[in-house]
Amino acid sequence: MKTIIEPFRIKSVEPIRMTTPEERRDLLRAADYNLFKLHSDDVLIDLLTDSGTSAMSARQWSAILSGDESYAGSPSFFRFEAAIRDLMDFKHIIPTHQGRAAEAILFSILGGKGKFIPSNTHFDTTRGNIETTGARADDLVIAEGKNPSLVHPFKGNMDLAKLEAYLEQHGDAVPCVMLTITNNAGGGQPVSLANIRATAEIARRYGRPFIIDGCRFAENAWFIQQREEGQKGRAIKDIVRDCFADADGMTMSAKKDAFANIGGWLALNDDELADKARTRLIMTEGFPTYGGLAGRDLDAIAQGLSEIVDEDYLRYRIRTNEYITERLDAMGVPVVKPAGGHAVFVDARAWLPHIAPLQYPGQAVACKLYELGGIRGCEIGTVMFGRAPDGTEAPASMDLVRLAMPRRVYTQSHADYIVEVFEELTAMKDSLRGYRITEQPPALRHFTAKFAPL
Ligand SMILES: *Cc1c(COP(=O)(O)O)cnc(C)c1O
């Protein structure tokens, strides 16, 4: 059969409340043109994020009921720990309420003034958690990863020569080497197994812990299976195990590739580092066998991890994004190619050359998508990354709009609707105008900034 069907049936549904473009124009104004401020029931298709928005399976909901809420030593924790170890065999597994809590704990120990932390591309919360300690976060992705239209199988790869030079230059001031799989902020692009191993080898040679931000490990493993020489036909689970075999630790958001609505973890092999992390955890999250989560959440994560490595699911998920990307490409919308794992990325800077980067072309596209079609996407560009900690502003390396697909939530006709909205937008794109920011906080401004159209 040629058609890739959704590999699930739907037994519980959420109605979508229909709105008109006129209503949405008013709602947008009332939200100061910041899509994070919209009420979600004013959105038709919510592609703001794939974080925590997964549809859980019947088995996950069953696991929720059997979760054990004991303060210490709950069997839910041991199921959680075993499910993680089945995929990533770390010595210490420390639950947190989400990915950024794991980052905050890790960098409260490893960060600090005068430290330098490299990654292929730091995710926004990772960068925020590093910079808030006074450390510097640097992105060393390969040059191909910064060219949105260039087709390359592993655009998330670390530039290994740059990493070596970085470690030579900064020496003891580098407390760890990070690698984000897949590379979310860089277009959801995968990292090859060879590159993961080579990054680990360099980190080891320089005596630095190698930490993987593994939020999208299953999608990354799918791309390795599909695209990397010698990996065809291997089980996703085996590939996942190989990806983490050489790492000294990981941060994880279970709101991504664990099908959970909340949760995360920090995993470490080093005993002393893990001790410090647990001490911090008790102050900020909770006791080490629940870490800011309910026992039931730990069980939902454990069950979700056994489902996320299913090949039929991964094939359907990746195909949805490929399909939309191919259709947009065919109608002349510049998109990041090849399609990313969890999202479709539109290159707003290339599409709207009449809007300067400091007038936020990504924001202009995201707002118009909402007004026209009730689709909520997310600017990933100069709004998100354009402001330095000292308050100065410069264009980010790209101005993208991310349409992130919640897992198992939308169907093929939703995908076709999204394509149709882009057809309408294409016809009027030259009339779009940029934005200016009228109010903003000192960090992570995209969540709360207020905008005005120019
Ligand atoms: C989502 C995400 C995070 C942060 O996780 P939260 O659960 O949202 O705090 C960190 N890194 C990457 C790559 C992510 O996608």
From TrEMBL:
<protein>
    <submittedName>
        <fullName>Tryptophanase</fullName>
    </submittedName>
</protein>
<feature type="domain" description="Aromatic amino acid beta-eliminating lyase/threonine aldolase">
    <location>
        <begin position="46"/>
        <end position="419"/>
    </location>
</feature>
<comment type="subunit">
    <text>Homotetramer.</text>
</comment>
<dbReference type="InterPro" id="IPR001597">
    <property type="entry name" value="ArAA_b-elim_lyase/Thr_aldolase"/>
</dbReference>
<keyword id="KW-0456">Lyase</keyword>
<dbReference type="Pfam" id="PF01212">
    <property type="entry name" value="Beta_elim_lyase"/>
</dbReference>
<dbReference type="InterPro" id="IPR011166">
    <property type="entry name" value="Beta-eliminating_lyase"/>
</dbReference>
<dbReference type="InterPro" id="IPR015424">
    <property type="entry name" value="PyrdxlP-dep_Trfase"/>
</dbReference>
<dbReference type="InterPro" id="IPR015422">
    <property type="entry name" value="PyrdxlP-dep_Trfase_small"/>
</dbReference>
<keyword id="KW-0663">Pyridoxal phosphate</keyword>
<comment type="similarity">
    <text>Belongs to the beta-eliminating lyase family.</text>
</comment>
<dbReference type="InterPro" id="IPR015421">
    <property type="entry name" value="PyrdxlP-dep_Trfase_major"/>
</dbReference>
